Amino acid sequence: MFKGINRFNDRRISKCLYKNIINNHSSHSSPILLSSIKSFTSLPSYLSQSTSTSPSTPLIHLNSKSFCLNNNNNNNNNIITLNSNSNNKLPIQYNNLYIKRVYSTTTSNTTTNSNDQNNTATILPNEVKDWISKAPLSIQPYLRLGRVDKPIGTWLLLYPCLWSIAIATPIGSFPDPMVLAVFATGAFVMRSAGCVINDMADYKFDSKVERTKTRPIASNILNHKQSLIFLGAQLLGSLAMTLATLNTYTILLCTASLPIVTLYPFMKRFTYYPQFVLGLAFNWGAFAGFSAIQGYCDWNIVLPLYLAGISWTMVYDTIYAHQDKKDDILVGVKSTALKFLEKSRLILSGFSILTIAGMIGTGVAAGMPSIFYVGTGVCAAHLAWQLSTVDFDNPKSCMKKFISNKNFGLLFLLTIILSKLIQWFDQIEKEKNEKEQQQQIKNE
């Protein structure tokens, strides 16, 4: 649709610098000319070339071309307007559309002193879609880069840590609050860092995929240098926190996971099983959580737990990958969704069985009571529900089931906690009986 328009492509607007100042512009509904484009990389799909001349329709003029907002609902809720109110600061955002230093001229190209900031044009969103839109504009791209508004990834990274911490904690004791805080913060920071690494590696692919093309690096809102500085700050902060709080064994164990974390974003170029590599990285907490409490790893306990986590990741991330399978084929990246295709339900059922088997193996090695296996059965039912109801050809259904794995992780954590409580009660009862027997012996 936009072929032949100089310096445009059909993706999105990013990082624009307009010169000149509007003079005596007070009407929001009359057309405005934005000119002298210094940096204009792309045009969003929701802008279309307009032939309307009605003064009631807000128009944007770019290099003598007129554009208005696509509006399938035929209402004005999403119309882009230009405002000369000096209280509006730049840069601004509209539906993930970032524009820096937007200045304008009237349609007659009349210009004034560039110091007249009262007539600086801004694009105003009519509604705030998420809490990040309320944050300072300068940090919004970094929050989106780190997926701060999408905590499901943090939960999926944190749960294996919490599982192993709960198992490793001595019966009748509560985990060290500092350890819990470090792992919670670490999961948040490292998941965010992983997203930065992923986006830096995949920005060319992301720009061609509908779901990911608005990500800050793919859309040129942030460059690689800015992203690398952000990544370095996250890694340094995480390292400092780890060195200050965790034992040496755990520090070395966490360090050993960094090559896997770094390799994951590149695996989709070479193998249909990047989800397996993600499982290796995301479930490393099964080792680190246990060692943070005990100072070592009981491999009879943590290895089955780790394998259960990897199998679980294969389930939820394959479901997630089905959202992008059409775009993945077009851009040439690989995933288990493309490998399994119509056999996904059957194959993921096998991985679900492996997940539950690993959990049971962990329970046996840790000497868990019978309630543990009841809870594990509930977890199995949750996986069965996911796979029996997910529509692999419906992105919304896939996302819903993917997010539901937060509940699966919580169910297993509660199973472990309940089992440890029952072990504690049993221990108290045992100690009480032993004291009574000793007292009877003394009385005799």
Automatic annotation (TrEMBL):
<feature type="transmembrane region" description="Helical">
    <location>
        <begin position="408"/>
        <end position="425"/>
    </location>
</feature>
<dbReference type="Pfam" id="PF01040">
    <property type="entry name" value="UbiA"/>
</dbReference>
<feature type="transmembrane region" description="Helical">
    <location>
        <begin position="346"/>
        <end position="365"/>
    </location>
</feature>
<keyword id="KW-0999">Mitochondrion inner membrane</keyword>
<comment type="pathway">
    <text>Cofactor biosynthesis; ubiquinone biosynthesis.</text>
</comment>
<feature type="transmembrane region" description="Helical">
    <location>
        <begin position="299"/>
        <end position="316"/>
    </location>
</feature>
<dbReference type="InterPro" id="IPR044878">
    <property type="entry name" value="UbiA_sf"/>
</dbReference>
<keyword id="KW-0808">Transferase</keyword>
<protein>
    <recommendedName>
        <fullName>4-hydroxybenzoate polyprenyltransferase, mitochondrial</fullName>
        <ecNumber>2.5.1.39</ecNumber>
    </recommendedName>
</protein>
<keyword id="KW-0812">Transmembrane</keyword>
<keyword id="KW-1133">Transmembrane helix</keyword>
<dbReference type="InterPro" id="IPR039653">
    <property type="entry name" value="Prenyltransferase"/>
</dbReference>
<dbReference type="InterPro" id="IPR030470">
    <property type="entry name" value="UbiA_prenylTrfase_CS"/>
</dbReference>
<comment type="function">
    <text>Catalyzes the prenylation of para-hydroxybenzoate (PHB) with an all-trans polyprenyl group. Mediates the second step in the final reaction sequence of coenzyme Q (CoQ) biosynthesis, which is the condensation of the polyisoprenoid side chain with PHB, generating the first membrane-bound Q intermediate.</text>
</comment>
<dbReference type="GO" id="GO:0008412">
    <property type="term" value="F:4-hydroxybenzoate polyprenyltransferase activity"/>
</dbReference>
<feature type="transmembrane region" description="Helical">
    <location>
        <begin position="152"/>
        <end position="172"/>
    </location>
</feature>
<dbReference type="InterPro" id="IPR006370">
    <property type="entry name" value="HB_polyprenyltransferase-like"/>
</dbReference>
<feature type="transmembrane region" description="Helical">
    <location>
        <begin position="273"/>
        <end position="293"/>
    </location>
</feature>
<dbReference type="GO" id="GO:0008299">
    <property type="term" value="P:isoprenoid biosynthetic process"/>
</dbReference>
<keyword id="KW-0831">Ubiquinone biosynthesis</keyword>
<keyword id="KW-0496">Mitochondrion</keyword>
<feature type="transmembrane region" description="Helical">
    <location>
        <begin position="222"/>
        <end position="243"/>
    </location>
</feature>
<feature type="transmembrane region" description="Helical">
    <location>
        <begin position="178"/>
        <end position="201"/>
    </location>
</feature>
<keyword id="KW-0472">Membrane</keyword>
<dbReference type="GO" id="GO:0005743">
    <property type="term" value="C:mitochondrial inner membrane"/>
</dbReference>
<keyword id="KW-0414">Isoprene biosynthesis</keyword>
<dbReference type="InterPro" id="IPR000537">
    <property type="entry name" value="UbiA_prenyltransferase"/>
</dbReference>
<comment type="similarity">
    <text>Belongs to the UbiA prenyltransferase family.</text>
</comment>
<dbReference type="GO" id="GO:0006744">
    <property type="term" value="P:ubiquinone biosynthetic process"/>
</dbReference>
